Amino acid sequence: MLKVSIRQASSFVGCMCCIAIFAGADCENGMPMGGGGTTPRTLFVVSPNTNLLTFANPGALNGAGVTPTTELELGLGGQIVSPKDAIVTPAGILIVANSAGISIFENAFTATGPRAADRIVEGAESGISTPVDVAYDAENDILFVSEDATSNEILVFDNVSNLAFDGDVQPSRTIGTNDNAFDAEQMRFFGGALYVVSRENVLIFENASTLDTSDFTADRLFTSPMIDEPGISIDSMGRLIVANEDDSVRIWNDASTVDGSPAPDLELTIQDAVRIDSAVIDANDRMYAADRTRNLIYTIDNVSQLSSGTVQADRVNEADELQTPERLFLFEE
Length: 333
Description:
- This protein is an all-beta fold and about 325 residues long.
- It has one domain: YVTN repeat-like/Quinoprotein amine dehydrogenase (Methylamine Dehydrogenase, Chain H, 7 Propeller), CATH 2.130.10.10.
- About 0% of the residues lie in helices and about 35% in strands.
- The protein has strands spanning about 5-10, 30, 40, 40-45, 50-55, 70, 85-90, 95-100, 100-105, 120, 135, 140-145, 155-160, 175, 185-190, 195-200, 200-205, 215, 220, 230-235, 240-245, 250, 265-270, 275-280, 285-290, 295-300, 310, 315, 325-330.
- The strands form seven sheets. A six-stranded antiparallel β-sheet has the order 11-12-13-14-1-18, with no helix packed on it. Strands 20-21-22-23-27 form a five-stranded mixed β-sheet, with no helix packed on it.
- A hairpin with a 4-residue loop joins strand 25 (about 285-290) and strand 26 (about 295-300).
- The radius of gyration is 18 Å and the shape is globular.
- It starts with a strand and ends with a strand.
């Protein structure tokens, strides 16, 4: 098993980036959020070379006439640069991991155009320079950051919604290992556990938010001959969804128990797809899958009612602004 140590640090900090999709409601029209307003289900799409896009009510979108709801421009001077992944907190704060550091926008649903971030976390003390990915524990307001896929450690920051989480702040602690085979390329947090993609494996660390030890072993190690460079997500039902840079999406029904090399419960090959880098499923059992090669987002309804095999997308988002989408993340209350 992989040995992982925890190095105690002080203070706090955060980071996030790649391709992301967020849905913010139980129905297509939306649901109340903080301040008494209503936020529609919103899809955030992150690509390293194009603007960060959102699509409100994404489940209904179809065809070439689709336009983004917001388009957060890339650039220097406080803006995001080469984003890798992103998350939105329950309070609606957008956190983006990118080559400028951790860029934070206080309102994820109005951040658009050539605007600077409200906060940026980066610098020598934080250990953040060009973060690769992030994961977020919403219950405890904790951010996990992979600074570099070859750094063999994960930075952990507490209280990241606080405005003091800004500038060159130190991590609260780190999860580290001397094993050169450990590359934290992508992370997701679900049910108290941190899921870390490392090459062709997914390492699962239980009780990740409270880890404080110098000698730690991953609780579960998930691998499969069907996956090589996986992009993962976990939906509200606890299903582990894996995209593997091919034309298929593979689903394991219970992320909390995956260990070893179990066969997927469902394998969907999307007709006409070329390279699916990321896929997510919303609370309405609707899957969104991003095709990086064809610059499309496929929507497939009623996933739990499907059987393994080839499926045709129910709708396809063909917005011109979609360019090499790489990460999808579903934001749901």
